[in-house]
Design a protein that fits this description.
With 400 residues, this protein is an alpha/beta fold. The chain has one domain (5-10, 51-103, 122-399): Ribokinase (UDP-N-acetylmuramoyl-L-alanine:D-glutamate ligase, 3-Layer(aba) Sandwich). The chain is built from 14 helices and 15 strands. The protein has helices spanning 29-32, 51-61, 76-86, 134-138, 152-155, 160-171, 194-201, 212-219, 221-230, 242-254, 290-293, 314-327, 332-347, 359-367, and strands at 5-11, 14-19, 44-49, 66-73, 90-97, 104-108, 116-120, 140-146, 175-179, 207-208, 259-263, 269-273, 297-300, 383-385, 390-392. The protein has an 11-stranded mixed beta sheet, with helices on both faces. A 4-stranded mixed beta sheet has the order 3-2-6-7. Helix 2 (51-61) crosses helix 12 (314-327). The two termini are 37 Å apart. 50% of the residues are buried. One of its GO terms (molecular function) is kinase activity.
Length: 400
């Protein structure tokens, strides 16, 4: 049965306000932001943010037919967000809630310094299963929801509302995917029982697309915090071994997901998938070649970035690349390349959308063989395949 939409993008939606900081060479945020100091900045980017916007608009740029599902308030921020999305897809699934405040984020991203987000969750905190437009889901091949850790009803009560949403999407016939974000350990979200939440939702999630740090924290919060302490609060991407990646991915697959990524920033994009017999209930967007997608473990290096803009939305963009390749019927190897290509396009600019190219341009960039960051995997059984510019894990078909 033909569907009107390739994908419905649901979940977190906000308005991003991103002031452009000049590069003064300062790399300590405390030297830029001080009490009583006026900080001169340049023009601000105003754009919709969150996965509904970032993943949705970028999939639209890649030629996907997109519809949206979220909530905004009846204020100016909500009107701006709704107007922006209406130009890029069907926004009938976005509810306007009377008397409620829309979500917004001020992104503080000086060059060379990790981003700081000033965020009001607004209507994201009250989004629930009743806000789903099931008619639109039934017209969509795929249902993607992003950022449950930033949406209160999604992580309270052990994620039962989130599980209900994915169960409804599956009942409507869609293939499903879920993206996460790293919770603040000191917040209510950070203290939520994420392992239990994952156990509740993953039987209804076909493609789980979090980052390595997000998943590590959700499965092993105490280990994560101890490791952060050992490494002076640095990002842990460089300190997690391929064996740990595989063990974490295996846990996610055992909970019910059919595929899981572990996005890894400059270290690239990791994916592991279940055996073919687990693909039976995938829904309307089954892979074109199940044998190619089943029982795989691959790791694509990231592209080298000469002029860095901001990592805002880079994970969302890489998901847009992966899902677009998947929905277009590409192989898993090809789809991984679109994931890292869109991540590259994203970090070359300040915001999460303007740097993304169309499908043809992205394809040309991949074929041009842009330089890659050396992921350097020296774990037993991993092998680099030059023709594909990919690493394959010990049990992957490429190594047999």
């Amino acid at each position: 049965m033909n569907k009107q939409y390739d994908v419905m993008i649901a979940g977190h939606l906000c308005l991003d306000i991103i002031p452009l900081f000049p590069d003064t060479g300062i790399r300590d945020i405390s030297e830029i932001l001080r009490p009583g100091k006026l900080v001169n900045v340049e023009n601000a980017k105003i754009s919709t943010g969150g996965p509904v916007s970032n993943t949705g608009l970028n999939m639209k740029k890649l030629g996907m037919n997109v519809c949206f599902c979220s909530c905004v308030g009846d204020d100016q921020f909500g009107k701006i967000a709704l107007d922006m999305l209406s130009h890029s897809g069907n926004a009938d699934g976005i509810k306007v809630l009377e008397g409620k405040a829309s979500s917004y984020t001020i992104v503080v991203a000086p060059p060379g310094i990790d981003r700081i987000f000033l965020h009001n969750p607004g209507t994201n905190d009250i989004f629930c299963a009743d806000d789903l437009n099931t008619d639109l889901i039934k017209q969509s091949r795929h249902f993607h929801l992003g950022y449950p850790p930033l949406m209160e009803k999604m992580y309270t009560n052990e994620g039962k509302e989130l599980a209900k949403i994915f169960r409804i999407a599956k009942e409507c016939g869609a293939t499903t995917s879920c993206d996460m974000t790293l919770p603040d350990p000191a917040s209510a979200s950070g203290k939520a029982p994420w392992r239990k939440i994952l156990e509740n939702i993953l039987p209804y999630v076909d493609i789980h697309v979090p980052s390595i740090e997000e998943t590590f924290y959700m499965l092993y919060p105490e280990k994560f915090l101890e490791m952060k302490k050992q490494h002076n609060n640095a990002e842990l991407i460089d300190f997690i071994s391929p064996e740990q990646y595989a063990a974490i991915a295996d846990e996610i697959l055992a909970m019910g997901a059919k595929m899981t990524t572990l996005k890894s920033g400059h270290r690239g994009f990791y994916i592991k998938t279940a055996s073919k017999d687990k693909f039976a209930g995938l829904g309307a967007a089954k892979p074109a070649d199940a044998d190619n997608w089943a029982d795989r473990e691959l790791w694509s290096p990231a592209y080298t970035v000469e002029k860095f803009g901001s990592a805002t939305g880079s994970g969302d963009s890489s998901i847009a690349g992966l899902l677009s390749g998947y929905l277009k019927g590409l192989t898993i190897e090809q789809s991984l390349k679109y994931a890292v290509c869109l991540g590259y396009q994203n970090v070359c600019v300040l915001d999460a959308v303007s740097g993304i190219k169309d499908w043809e341009t992205s394809t040309s960039m991949i074929k041009a063989g842009m330089p890659l960051i050396d992921t350097h995997i020296d774990s037993q059984g991993w092998k680099y395949h030059d023709s594909l510019t990919l690493w394959a894990g010990p049990g992957d078909m490429l190594n047999k």
